[in-house]
Amino acid sequence: ASIIERISRQSRLITTPKDRELIDDVIVETNQALEMTTTYSQIIKGTRQLVEADLNNSLANVMKFLTSITLIISIPTMIASFYGMNVELPGGGYEYTFVILLIIMVVLCAISVVILRKRGLWR
Q1: What digits encode the pLDDT tens for the residues 2-14?
Q2: Which of 1, 25, 38, 40 qualifies as a cystine partner to 30, CB 3.0-4.6 A?
Q3: What is the pTM of this model?
Q4: Which residues of 20-48 are buried (b: 16+ CB within 10 A; e: fewer)?
Q5: Residue 57 domain flag
Q6: Domain that holds residue 94
């Protein structure tokens, strides 16, 4: 708008009152367009920030859920890795050791899920 205002100040370019009226209309319209552009830019910026916040919240929820699953999966993995070693372990010669270990793993996983649900970390 400043260029148009400079043109309007130079009297040699504006020869008639109609020219003055037209240049004043152009200045008003340009200022209004500038204000509207600024307003819409702020609206778009606010909308973008809202979408980013929503995406960040969704990502945080997914990360919490994946962390919970990792914790639950690590329990049977740890027990199985101990009994996968080539050393003498308690109950190694007993024929129902495998079934007992499976039951222990399932119970520990279920307890983990219950604890995580109480803390709001499991859906």
Answers
A1: 787 887 777 677 7
A2: 1
A3: 0.59
A4: eeebeeebeeeeeeeeeeeeeeeeeeeee
A5: yes
A6: 2-118
